[in-house]
Design goal:
The complex is a heterodimer. Chain A is built from nine helices and four strands, in the order H-H-E-H-E-E-H-E-H-H-H-H-H. Chain A is α+β, with helices and mostly antiparallel strands. Classes of the chains: A alpha+beta, B alpha+beta.
């Protein structure tokens, strides 16, 4: 059975355009609320985040779950009223606040230890980021993205043709942007923050997505050389069909470990895995349905 | 056949070498995985020196190394990052307060001389200074009462008082660099601590000169730490002839054991040529990092086992061969990480997982091609050969684009991104090697070497039309 990707191309384009617009909308709403298109973690805006877990090995330490109210009181008394407090699994406390210097942080930790209970040093997590560092991290990441986009365009133009390169980058941008859009929604609905790991996830998606697109383009290129007289629509349809099993299998095998990490893995990697899952599915979709149909559309235009 | 045999031998040798490397040089885990504190320290240019050159950077690095050594942390890593940052990694440290204080403090120690004619003014100014300090201390300790305006106000008057006091002293060039040693010492009388210091020869001479000039005048030696007067002892008239000789002295002034040892560490480490600031602190408790990672790694391994099963079930014999190739791939890649000295962090693991995905992909591409050729009616041997041959351009192009992206990320990205780019790039290179040599060699050897396999192409592709 042959599947024609070209026949439904208006449908694919509409789906992508709608999701794309939805992503923009989510980012705009997010911008009005958080002053950023996605809810940024302290990695990007600076601040201090403390995560402490009560040491339950000490007798009487874990009799009562941590009360948010008590913590709020302590924090307000230190002049850090607008901090974000979260209690995870009853005995773990997470406090996100402005960038504290070492004296202020010691004071806060001391007060918490005294009034809430003894926190274990083995389970502590401190993240303190100055405001300039976050900016630098962001700029260097974006610069690296732009340069890698450019490098990919040059290589693909050289190995394939310029229009292939442009559409590959377009598909890539589509995947990255919609993944960011989904996280904008998650930030609005569930308070999910994007941190530097999210940036790494976006980079990973780029690597995977371009890989996917190149495989399909390679097939289309081969079909063009073998059957130069065939119309481009048929060529593209053939190419997609020939690569379909491969794309599904590769995506499935890559997703298996990621889904396992998302469901059963530790807290730190949960949203990282989720970003990759979304991005990889989009990557496979955009390679099969967008990069191919756009290329064919463009070639048709040129023939006429 | 001959060629395949020697390739197999080569692969075997490589695998044995890789296992040997992994046993001898275990993989380095990042602090986010094994626990510890990572501090990024930014050097700030001063008015006189507006840009930091590599020599300055290294000077600061040396001082920081000295300070860290006096903290007694096992296996610290100090490295420069970019033009004006220094990264300090302290494995196992989960309470980085002391490290932060000691590393972040500039601790420019100087012994100055009180100027003539300020005998009356000094006690007044000094009292104002001490009173303001005490008030600020008090204000900060009151629990429940939050008064940032008051604190800001006090800070301003403190700065004013500091300048007023500092104006009454003049430099004689006796600075922290003239010190040989400094250590905390309990006070002989009652509670409290002091810092005992020892000067080098030049420092000893300057100190004798200074004390000789001041002896019996009622004027004080000003001991300034970062331009703040911390102690102002006077010198008795008995030293008027020679000054205090011998090159040692003590600094007293309201020290606890912590503040005394902090100061001693700072003095010992030497003065920093530039002001610095701890701009980033990432601390992860040992068990927290391990727990989170263990769970994620178990999950990832479970996922990979599913991948191996899938390959075997779907692609049959070639799938099993690919599984073997993937196992070899994993060993070789990890050995490369260990050889290159990659420190495995969370993003690094992400890069590794992605590269496994790409290694699987290379095999999938080849097998799909092989099946196509088989369906097209070619013999098994020819199908396998042309499967590899025709999948090659796909594999090459997709991997090269990934490598280009890695290159950009490695040169321009920050530490986190660099780690990712490096592990992915190594993974992609090794996967090209294993897919094109391991899978291919073993497959050809099976096809050529075992006649029964050749009669059963259905081991490669189900539902083949009968030829």
């Amino acid at each position: 059975m042959k599947f024609s990707v070209m026949k439904g191309r208006n449908l694919w384009w509409s789906i992508s355009a709608a999701t794309f617009l939805g992503s923009i909308l989510a980012m705009v709403i997010s911008f009005t609320q958080f002053n950023a298109p996605l809810l940024p973690s302290i990695d990007f805006v600076g601040g201090t985040k403390l995560q402490l877990t009560l040491n339950c090995g000490v007798a009487g330490n874990c009799e009562n779950p941590i009360q948010t109210g008590v913590v709020q009181e302590i924090i307000t008394s230190l002049g850090l009223g607008n901090s974000k407090i979260q209690v995870i699994d009853d005995y773990t406390l997470s406090v996100r606040t402005q960038n504290l210097d070492v004296e202020q942080r010691t004071q806060l930790q001391g007060a918490l230890n005294e009034k809430v209970g003894q926190f274990g040093p083995e389970t502590i997590q401190i993240d303190s980021v100055g405001p300039t560092i976050g900016q630098e991290l962001f700029t260097s990441g974006v610069l690296a993205l732009i340069v890698s986009f450019f490098g990919i365009i040059v290589y693909l133009s050289f190995r394939f043709q310029f229009d292939y390169a442009i559409f590959a980058i377009l598909a890539l941008f589509h995947d990255v942007f919609i993944t960011a859009g989904v996280f904008a929604v998650l930030g609005l609905v569930g308070g999910v923050e994007v941190d530097s790991l999210f940036l790494v996830a976006l980079l990973t998606i780029i690597g995977f997505s371009v890989n996917d697109t190149v495989v399909i383009y390679d097939r289309i290129r081969e079909n063009i050389t073998q059957q130069p007289d065939k119309p481009i629509q048929t060529i593209v349809d053939d190419g997609v069909n020939q690569s379909l099993t491969r794309s599904i299998n590769t995506t499935l095998t890559t997703l298996l470990p990621l889904v396992a990490i998302f469901l059963f893995g530790g807290q730190t990697l949960k949203y990282f895995a989720l970003a990759l899952i979304i991005g990889f599915i989009l990557g496979a979709y955009s390679s099969l349905f967008l990069a191919s149909t756009l290329l064919s559309w463009w070639r048709e235009l040129q023939e006429n | 056949m001959e060629k395949q045999r020697s390739l197999i031998a080569l692969i075997l040798v490589l695998v044995v070498a890789a296992i040997f490397i992994l046993v001898k040089v275990p993989l380095q885990l990042g602090l986010d995985l094994k626990g510890g504190a990572q501090l990024t320290i930014q050097i700030k240019p001063t008015e006189e020196v507006t840009s930091i050159n590599p020599d300055d950077l290294n000077a600061v690095k040396r001082v920081l190394e000295n300070r860290i050594d006096s903290l007694g942390v096992a296996e610290p890593i100090v490295q420069t990052v970019g033009g004006e940052k220094i990264l300090v990694q302290l494995p196992g440290v989960t309470d980085p307060q002391q490290a932060e204080r000691v590393l972040g403090g500039t601790a420019q120690l100087e012994f100055r001389k009180q100027i003539q004619g300020s005998e009356e003014q000094f006690p007044i100014e000094y009292q104002i200074l001490q009173r303001t300090q005490a008030e600020l201390q008090l204000q900060r300790q009151i629990p429940g009462e939050d008064n940032p305006d008051k604190i800001t106000e006090l800070k301003e008057s403190l700065a004013k008082a500091n300048t007023a006091v500092a104006d009454l002293f003049t430099s004689v060039g006796l600075v922290g660099e003239n010190l040989k040693n400094a250590r905390p010492q309990p006070l002989q009388s009652g509670n409290g601590w002091q810092v005992a210091i020892e000067f080098d020869n030049a420092g000893g001479r300057k100190f004798a000169e200074l004390t000789k000039n001041l002896a019996g005048t009622g004027r004080s030696i000003g001991i300034f730490l970062d331009d703040t007067l911390i102690s102002a002892p006077t010198v008795g008239p008995e030293f008027a002839d020679t000054g205090i000789t011998g090159g040692s002295a003590v600094i007293t002034g309201n020290f606890t054991i912590e503040t005394a040892s902090d100061l001693a560490v700072q003095i010992r480490g030497g003065a920093l040529p530039f002001p610095v600031e701890v701009v980033e602190n990432r601390t992860v408790g040992a068990t927290l990092g391990q727990d989170s990672i263990k769970r994620s790694i178990y999950a990832a391994i479970a996922g990979l086992v599913l991948v191996l099963i899938f390959m075997g079930v779907y692609y049959r014999l070639p799938g099993l061969i690919a599984d073997l190739a993937l196992a070899i791939y994993t060993i070789l890649t990890l050995a490369c990480y260990s050889l290159v000295g990659v420190t495995l962090t969370l993003p690094g693991i992400a890069g590794f997982i992605l590269s496994i995905g790409m290694a699987v992909d290379a095999n999938v591409l080849i097998f799909e091609r092989t099946r196509e050729e088989l369906r097209g009616g070619k013999t098994l041997y020819r199908s396998v050969e042309s499967g590899f041959y025709r999948a090659f351009s796909s594999i090459l192009d997709s991997n090269v684009t990934t490598l280009i992206a890695c290159g950009a990320l490695f040169w321009l990205g920050s530490g986190l991104v660099k780690g990712f780019a490096l592990t992915l790039a190594i993974g992609v290179l090794v996967s090209m090697f294993t897919a094109l040599t391991c899978s291919r060699t073993v497959m050809l050897l099976t096809v050529l070497g075992i006649p029964k396999v050749r009669q059963k192409p259905e081991l490669f592709c189900p539902n083949l039309p009968v030829a």
